[in-house]
Amino acid sequence: MILDTVTLQTLRVPLVTPFTTSFSTQTARTVLTVRVDARVNGVETTGWGECGALAEPVYSEEYAAGAADVIERFLLPRLAAASRDDRLTAETVGEVLEPIVGHRMAKAALEAAVLDAQLKASGLSFAAYLGATRTRVPSGVSVGIQDSIPRLLDTVAGYVDEGYQRIKLKIQPGWDVEPVRAVREAHPDVPLQVDANAAYTLVDAAHLRRLDAFDLLLIEQPLAEDDLRQHAELARVMTTPMCLDESVVSAASAADAIHLGAAAVINIKPSRVGGYLEARRIHDVARASGIAVWCGGMLETGLARGANAALAALPGFTLPGDISASSRFYAEDLTTPYVIDDGHIAVPTFPGLCEEPHADALARFGDAARVVSVA
Ligand code: OSB
Ligand code: MG
After folding, report:
1. How close is the Cα of 261 to the center of ligand 1, in Å?
2. Which end of the chain is more exposed for a tag (fewer CB within 10 A), N or C?
3. Closest atom of ligand 1 to CA, residue 26
């Protein structure tokens, strides 16, 4: 692939309802978009990616403005050099950017845009490229921390009525056992799980064990990102399966977590791990070890929601992901909205990872696009 230009734009897309986790309340998604204009074997092609980084470094150390900076200052010059040496493909982006430490969400956005451009040039869908084995994936929903238990029950009932096949409740100290008990009593059979976003410490082990009473599919990331050994210790005293999100940043860290007994389940978020290709490697590692995986989310817009669905259509994704309809977060998506149909999201069949975003949505939600020449 020969790169011509890369365009960065930061959007602020309003959320239909505030989303509260143990680390923040968001009322809009700040999303950095990457557009790549390139040629593959002389054929002009355009690809799009979005960066998973939030506006603030509260989920991980990355944040949208920082991602834009590292892309422009350090990542694009390396991609441009690889392009000039004629060794740039989606499959080489990872190794070309490897000397820059960390910044996985920034790298993932670039890899996605290059991959989208490459697949569009050859007319191949992302699902076909990956070897996906399903045409639709079961849809789960992540439910933020609410003001009261009655409000939580209303919110959950609404999602159950829409057909969501699995409910994930965000928890934090002071919002855990009682809300989970209330939802379990109202929905005795719904597949239910919780996500603490690292809000607890091992001192809370006895308290967290009370969650074992509610037949949860899993507990996601109760402890800090670097507490792998402590997660293993907590896993030994709880019957609820331990799932890691923030702690798993690569296939190597996934293998470590599995071998330490810190993860019985892994949430695979393509952005968190540096891109879809590393996400597939984690799927492969987990599958070889008999560890279940599911696809997590970062409030993706239509630029990445369908690609997540394609990833989740690989055979090792045996639990429903945080792949909900566009309407879960957005009144207006950047592309044709993803819809929930019979509890599922359809895996896209169009070439590439995403549809071209609607120009009017980019104009309404976006700042001035910044074209970076890379020739
Ligand atoms: O921990 O899974 C998480 C959103 C932002 C940051 C972290 C997380 C989440 C979610 C929402 O739970 C998942 C989604 O539906 O996109
Ligand atoms: Mg999580």
Report:
1. 24
2. C
3. 5
Overall average pLDDT of the 88-109 stretch: 98
User: Which token pair is 56?
Assistant: 């603030």
60 ligand 1 Cβ < 6 A: no
Q: What is the pLDDT of residues 255-293, one digit of tens each?
A: 999 999 999 999 999 999 999 999 999 999 999 999 999
Which amino acid belongs to residue 170? K
Q: What is the pLDDT of residues 291-313, one digit of tens each?
A: 999 999 999 999 999 999 999 99
Out of 3.30.390.10, 3.50.50.60, 2.40.30.70, 3.40.980.10, select the CATH number for domain 2-123+358-373: 3.30.390.10
For domain 127-346, give its CATH number from 1.10.230.10, 3.40.50.300, 3.20.20.120, 3.10.580.10: 3.20.20.120
The residue count of the chain comes to: 375
Cβ atoms of 333 and 301 within 8 Å: the answer is: yes
- Ligand 1 binding pocket includes 142 (Cβ within 6 Å): yes
Amino acid code (one letter) for 82? A
Cα 122 to chain centroid, rounded: 26
Ligand 1 neighbour 19 (Cβ under 6 A): no
258 in the Ramachandran plot: left (φ > 0), alpha (ψ -120 to 50) or beta?
alpha
Enumerate residues with CB within 5 Å of ligand 2 (an ion).
Answer: 195, 220, 245
Estimate the crossing angle of helix 76-84 against helix 90-97, to 10 degrees.
120
Kindly compute the dihedral angle of the four CA atoms of residues 133, 137, 138, 139, in this order, to the nearest 10 degrees.
Answer: 160
List 107, 120, 168, 170, catalytic entry: 170
Ligand 1 neighbour 83 (Cβ under 6 A)? no
Scan for tokens 């074992």, then name that residue.
212
Residue 168 is among the residues annotated as catalytic for this protein: no
Most informative mutation of 322, 328, 338 for ligand 1 (most atoms within 8 A of CB): 322
